[in-house]
Amino acid sequence: MPPLKKSMPSGIANAPSKRTRDALKVGKAKQTDEAGRESVGAATTRQDKRRQETRFKLMRAALQLMSAKGLDGVAIQDITNAADVGFGSFYNYFPSKEAIFQNLKEELIEHYAAALDKLGEQVADPAEKIAASARYTMRHGRADPVWGKFVLATNFNRDSLHAGLGRYLLRDVMTGIEAKRFVCHDLASLVVAVGSTILGGLMAEVTVSEHADDPFGSPDDLPEKISATLLVTLGLPWAEAWTIASRPLPVVDLPANPLSVGMRPDS
Q1: Above 50 in pLDDT, residue 12?
Q2: pLDDT band at residue 215, thresholds of 50, 70 and 90?
Q3: Closest residue by Cα to residue 160 from 170, 145, 175, 146
Q4: Is residue 108 classed as helix, strand or coil in its secondary structure?
Q5: Which member of 142, 166, 178, 260 lies 3.0 to 4.6 Å from 161 by CB, making a disulfide possible if both were Cys?
Q6: Which of 111, 129, 112, 108 is nearest to 120 (CA)?
Q7: Contact criterion met (CB below 8 Å) for 42 and 32
Q8: Cα–Cα distance measured from residue 36 to residue 33, given in angstroms and rounded to the nearest whole number
Q9: String of DSSP letters for 178-224
Q10: Helix ranges (DSSP H) in the chain
Q11: Rounded to 5 degrees, what are φ and ψ at 38?
Q12: Do 162 and 110 meet the contact criterion of CB atoms below 8 Å apart?
């Protein structure tokens, strides 16, 4: 005969575990009542907001430092010091310095390049598209020098041809070559020459306010002159290049820099 099972007092079999009871106590203590005590949802929201603010501070500090010194010139300790965040807290948000750098590139360059690429929906001529893209980039750099310096710090390398602005430039140059709009004897050299011209113009724009004796001066049409020059590099005669580079810019909704100084993460 099988042993009899011991009966349990009513309600015990379905009683919550100690861990569950403790969690219920915490939840009950944080529920909003008539006395105005906070709810669990409110506490979670505040915690999420604090995490968002800390991540924002780390990203903005990294942007400021890497814009000035590049990736190799900045240590994690530099970032956490500038953000006023504990060193160990960095790893709650990013696994490495390279990871935060990549996040910045995606946030500030990839998104910008993707938005700028919409020029193709308004401009059919490859020459006009490249000229407009170059002008927008240079003008964006003057309006937001930190953004411009970050682009400069991250695009003077071989990898820049495969990511961000460089990837789109390579494709647009190839499109113009296939359409017989551009003259090309060597693709790699041509893309490097055009990309370097744009970056040189960007450098002139982001540093124009830093030097009273700037040899470039501060001409309002510098982006147009540089864009015409790069079109000449692509094989167009100067008169046509200047006409194209001087046309009114198409309207493009470019993303604002979310890490601009003074902005809040929830603004």
Answers
A1: no
A2: low
A3: 170
A4: helix
A5: 166
A6: 129
A7: yes
A8: 5
A9: HTT-S--S-HHHHHHHHHHHHHHHHHHHHTTTT-TT-TT---TTHHH
A10: 18-30, 40-69, 76-83, 97-105, 111-116, 126-143, 145-155, 164-178, 187-206, 222-233, 238-245
A11: -75, 160
A12: no
Identity of the residue numbered 182: F
CA-based end-to-end distance of the chain = 74
Q: Which two tokens stand for residue 31?
A: 């529920």
Query: How many angstroms separate the CA atoms of 163 and 181, rounded?
Result: 24
Contacting residues for 54 by C-beta, under 8 A, at least 6 apart: 83, 85, 89, 93
206-243: burial string, b at 16+ Cβ within 10 Å, e else? bbbeeeeeeeeeeeeebbbebbbbbbebbbbeeeebbe
Dump pLDDT digits (tens) for 166-185. 888 898 999 999 999 999 99
Instruction: List phi, psi (to 5°) of 224.
Output: -70, -40
Pull the structure tokens for residue 221: 């049409």
Q: How far apart are CA 115 and CA 137, in angstroms?
A: 12
Rounded average pLDDT over 214-224: 73
Report phi then psi at 64, rounded to 5: -60, -45
**Whole-number Cα distances in Å, 79 to 48, 58, 99, 261:** 21, 6, 13, 15
Token pair 């500030």 is at which residue?
A: 108
Q: Name the pTM for this structure.
A: 0.74
